[in-house]
What we know:
It is built from 15 helices and 16 strands. By secondary structure, the protein is of the alpha/beta class. Bound molecules: L-homoserine (HSE).
Amino acid sequence: MAVKHVGVALLGxxxxxxxxxxxxxxxxxxxxxxxxxxxxxxxxxxxxxARIKELGIDGGIVAKDIDEIVNNPDIQIVAEFxxxxxxxxxxxxxxxxxxxxxxxxxxxMFSKCWQELEKAAEQGGGGLYFxxxxxxxxxxxxxxxxxxxxxxxxxxKGIVNGTTNYIxxxxxxxxxxxxxxxxxxxxxxxxxxxxSADVDGFDAMYKNSILSSLAYRRRIPIENIxxxxxxxxxxxxxxxxxxxxxxxxxxxxxxxxxGKLEARVHPAFLPNSHPLSSVKxxxxxxxxxGDNVDDVMLYGRGAGAxxxxxxxxxxxxxxxxxxxxxxxPFENEQVQTDIEKDFSSVYYVRFDVKEEDGTLGKVAGVLNxxxxxxxxxxxxxxxxxxxxxxxxKESVMRKALCEAEQLSGVERVAALIRVEE
Length: 421
Ligand code: HSE
């Protein structure tokens, strides 16, 4: 069979763009032999001359603008590495309308613009490939689209942000403070340009939107995902959680319960025995539960030039082998997402209390009155009371805590952390 020649353009040669260029160069012959496609980088778009030189790119393939790429008939696939919504969105829409396929790692742009990209792809006939947008080098997208067809997915739980997992792991295992961990994550190239995207949970929310939309075959817009980050996590709670047998993680969660979906991103305690608890540092993992397959966990590097470049190159090869492309029709309709905002959870609550007799009894009374069951009580010191509840609706929990804060012996609710069991 004749080798298929495919021309690729790379938009942006930063960390992941540069990693992708290097992989495409070093593996070109291997891919040609194994997959029968010859992938050639025909154009790059980046103004950074030093970077172009550093990567050893021939100046003759540096495009002056996106139109030169869009109008080049030798380019079939456009891979984008800019990050952020613009100009990535505009450039990729142009490429799709011109009939090219796109490959992207850009979770923010993809989660926000999926519908219009889908429309442009349908019109132009190209495909959308976004394996690298979620969980770096770990093949989570293709697992959900191509290996789970026999299942109704019932839940996803994931550590999908390397920066926050790196920070929480080091705070927990080595007692390093939050600011030092964040600076180190930036230095190692895990963090987004604006680290708020990581620590405030935006990045995990974008990824949750993409993964959950694929898992449940309906659109889960980011507006329907409740989000909390790790900026307020107190090292004391990580330590108290440890004593209770829990590990703190920033989780992206979605669940299908009685036909209703819940989707959220927040710090959560997991029992130490849960496989996600052992995922450390910049590693990520996605724990998928389906009605037939039961539990599947995918684990690997969630960030970094080469792991993410690996996912990009796999998409390029996968796309190159296709004459027709997968469509995501749920994106083309106004699908009603039946989202449950008032979800149920087990809670860890830390109260700052006054040194008064009878406070524990009064707190227990308020919880009992609100039908919040108590599983564990830990009186850490005269002024610190920790309670683990039974599963309860978020609205009920918050109402009970408002009432508890009115008690004379209670200073404040100092921490409220969900527990995923
Ligand atoms: N900032 C992201 C992370 C990069 O830390 O996971 C990979 O998407």
